[in-house]
Amino acid sequence: MGIQIDVVAAYPINDEMERVLGLAEAVGEPVRVRFMWEGRQEAEHAVLVPAATLALWEHWAPTAYPTSDAGDENRAETEKPELAHPAEFGPFTLFRRRVGGRTAVARGGVVVAELLNPDEAHWLEERARNVRQGFMDPKQKAAFEEFLARQSSLDDQ
């Protein structure tokens, strides 16, 4: 992931959030973000992934990211995601999912990006890349098989 930005998001009137969301949408690639929410001691780390990029990753990733929090030592066993109204930052609205920890970012009723856990974003990107690199469309596969058929065997060389 190429871009890393630190954001301090304290109040919805702060336009920093709007600028970061606009940046991620404009560059079309994941942006690493650190949020310092008001009233919390620790920063929340996330990766803001444009919707089109996430759709591509999820298309090629063969399975879903494991949701087991067994290895997550930072969270208390009893901590539950909070239920809250969507947070608005300028023209963007954030919808936090209670399951999975993702946050959808919408503008004008259309999801333009999602905030993901950095581990999940890395996992999805790697899985998608590995599967995509091993895939050949039917025409490409036929051309490659024809190429291989024209090659002399190793015994003939």
Describe the structure.
The chain has 157 residues and is α+β, with helices and mostly antiparallel strands. It has helices at 16-27, 51-60, 118-133, 138-150; strands at 3-7, 31-35, 44-50, 87-89, 92-96, 103-107, 110-116. Helix 2 crosses helix 3. The chain contains four helices and seven strands; from the N terminus they run E-H-E-E-H-E-E-E-E-H-H. It is elongated, with a radius of gyration of 21 Å. The protein is 32% helix and 24% strand. The chain has a seven-stranded mixed sheet.
Task: List the topology elements.
Layout: E1 3-7, H1 16-27, E2 31-35, E3 44-50, H2 51-60, E4 87-89, E5 92-96, E6 103-107, E7 110-116, H3 118-133, H4 138-150
Parallel strand pairs: 1-2
Antiparallel strand pairs: 2-3, 3-7, 4-5, 5-6, 6-7
Write a brief caption for the model.
With 157 residues, the chain is of the alpha+beta class.
| Rg (C-alpha, Å) | 21 Å
What order do the helices and strands follow? EHEEHEEEEHH
Major sheet: 7 strands, mixed
Q: Count of helical segments?
A: 4
**What is the average of the pLDDT values?**
77
Q: Keywords for this structure?
A:
elongated, alpha+beta, seven-stranded mixed β-sheet, 7 strands, 4 helices, 157 residues
